[in-house]
Design a protein that fits this description.
Number of strands: 11
Largest sheet: 6 strands, mixed
Distance between the termini: 70 Å
Helix content: under 10%
Strand content: 35-45%
Radius of gyration: 17 Å
Structural class: mainly beta
Order of helices and strands: EEEEEEEEEEEH
Shape: elongated
Length: 145
């Protein structure tokens, strides 16, 4: 095929699901809308990534919570792929500019777990980090007294 016939995307429309290529209902389309929502023991994290930070950068949950991460890469530069990783929970996402990725974990381990961008994206790449704070369950707190 001739290369002039290929009509490749350079960036995706912000909030595009990386699996379906359709608008993602969980996308966060601006940094000021990044948030954490709790519904009982279900937690939705609506996060954004843009050079050189992840918002929110501190996420607090309880041990035993089910945590749904919805991460949107807000970059509009075609070479600004970002990642999202939490090593202890075996999470590693990769998102091209405009893409939204979703992953769910059960916060079954209490402690402080760093999350970070897993794709080298700029000179400030190492600034793209934060912490998942998993507070121990009431049973664990009572046993430690």
């Amino acid at each position: 095929i001739r290369s002039d016939l290929i009509k490749a995307y350079k960036i995706y429309k912000p909030g595009t699901n990386e699996v379906t290529d359709q608008p993602d209902p969980n996308a966060t389309l601006s940094e000021d809308k990044a948030r954490v929502e709790r519904h009982g023991n279900l937690v939705d994290v609506y996060a954004t990534e843009i050079r050189s930070h992840i918002r929110p950068d501190i996420i607090e949950v309880n041990q035993g919570d089910t945590v749904h991460f919805h991460v949107t890469n807000l970059e509009q530069t075609q070479d600004a792929t970002h990642g999202f990783g939490i090593g202890e929970y075996n999470v590693n996402l990769s998102m091209e500019p405009g893409r939204t990725a979703n992953v769910t974990i059960v916060a079954n381990k209490s402690g402080v777990f760093p999350f970070y961008c897993t794709e080298f994206c700029s000179a400030l790449h190492l600034e793209m980090a934060g912490y998942l704070l998993v507070k121990p369950s009431s049973q664990a707190r009572a046993a430690s007294r």
